[in-house]
Amino acid sequence: MSTSPTPEEREKKDAEAKAKEQQEQAKLPYKWTQNIGDLDITVPVPGNLKGRDLEVSMTRKKLKVGIKGQPPIIDGDLPKEIHTDESTWTLETLSSSSSSSGNNSGGSVNSKEIAIHLDKVNKMEWWAHVVTSAPAIDTSKITPENSKLSDLDGETRTMVEKMMYDQRQKEQGKPTSDEEKKLDMLKKFQAQHPEMDFSNAKMG
What we know:
- By secondary structure, the protein is of the alpha+beta class.
- The chain has three helices and seven strands; from the N terminus they run αβββββββαα.
- It has helices at 7-26, 154-171, 177-192, and strands at 31-34, 38-45, 54-58, 62-67, 74-77, 88-93, 112-119.
- It has a four-stranded antiparallel beta sheet with strand order 1-2-7-6, with no helix packed on it. The chain has a three-stranded antiparallel beta sheet with strand order 3-4-5, with no helix packed on it.
- Strand 3 (54-58) and strand 4 (62-67) form a beta hairpin.
- The two termini are 34 Å apart.
């Protein structure tokens, strides 16, 4: 007979899942972050490369990034569509931290990275991965702190907070904010009309 996990067991399971997720993400040849409306990817490449040495292709549903003549670093289907006109990429030189010993040889070159900005078509949805072939993250665990929620304007922020609240409520089998509003309205209506039978009322 299966019993519901205790809060401690659930916390331990969540911590293990988070550790596994971080491990999988750390193995990727790129780093990525997202806001609710867009996504940024950085791909480290050798410092001697120029823009013409790279191959970056973005369509509404596909992304391919790599160095010409080599297997692509990223190549796959995007989980959701992007606005290609608003999505960009640049090759950036990283400022190398000088060695404290001061014995850097003049031959060393700065490292570079390809910085890719993807503008999501759906501004109300988190992505679980950059391309569908990559390991997924648990989007239900995204919190306002690590999603730069404070950067959003008031209206968008309210919508995002509602969406995240609804996502958490669904996970716990509780009513979403819209369903809660309907239930509140039904309760008020019931109070105003005690003579009516609401026992078979369905929330849709």
